[in-house]
Amino acid sequence: MNLRIVLLASVLALLTSNAPPASAWGCKGHQTVALIAEKHLTPEARQMVEKLLGEIPIDLKLRRWCGNATTDLFVDASTWPDDVRSERKNGPWHYIDIPRGKHKGDLKEYCGAEGCVTRAIEEQRAILKDKSADPVKRAEAVRYLIHFVGDMHQPLHAITNADNGGNCVAVKYFRHEPRLNPARPEREDYSPNLHQIWDTEIVERDMEISNPARYADELDEKFHAESAVWEAAGIQIDNWAWESHERAETTAYDAFTEKIPIEPDIKPKSCADDNHIGKRMFEKHLAVGDSYQSNAAKAAEQSLAEAGVRLALILNAAAKAAN
Q: Who contacts 234 (Cβ-Cβ below 8 Å, separation ≥6)?
């Protein structure tokens, strides 16, 4: 029996080491953001994006976690940054760790030396707007922007509670009980966890029978009136990050019946740090059911719609600047 356990742990460790990195919204969510944005592009922006992505294609040898069956280069680009994340060692570009309990203000103190999502968006915007820049870098800038604007609008990518953006908060998701990763029990990693369900499960459960194209149509129609307001407000990247942070506070953390206290402002290397935060959160027996799912899905829908409209704003402005 002990040998069987050892073999099982070894197999799980191998699978974990080759698993795709956590990505905001998962494949379908990122694709939905891209599809909404496409609906709001100016002709100039569409031409610029199609030219760059068409002339500088993604390496066919690259392993694509979300597949590359789509012929829509814009949609295909939406998940590319996660495919190269480990190779390029730019994981911090995908999020910003704003501690719980913080409200408005300068985000620089939360953006470390390795960068963060708000800084990455600004840097990629500058590259894309410069028509004299290397076309390869400009094509990559398009792909990064499509993905990073989506990332920033996933609420758990704009908050932390000494819990790695909710990755250390074990939750029961409907009938799925959280389980400790047997390959690395010392790290106190549980699945499902708060970050994971916001990345994927909440959105995909809300999508039901829809595919990303149909879901994008539904959300674009649902938020048609609000879209005009978002467009009129213009590009305000820091404000968008704070909105996402506040949404995480209210609809992710505070929505549980069991109170989750604000932790000390530290960056744990694993969920065993911060006085075993992983184990402490597991022992709270947090559960997500119909009520939490319903409210979270409404918040996620708005976040996806905002991300799509605001991504189009950025690309439209870049195309205008590059003319």
A: 313
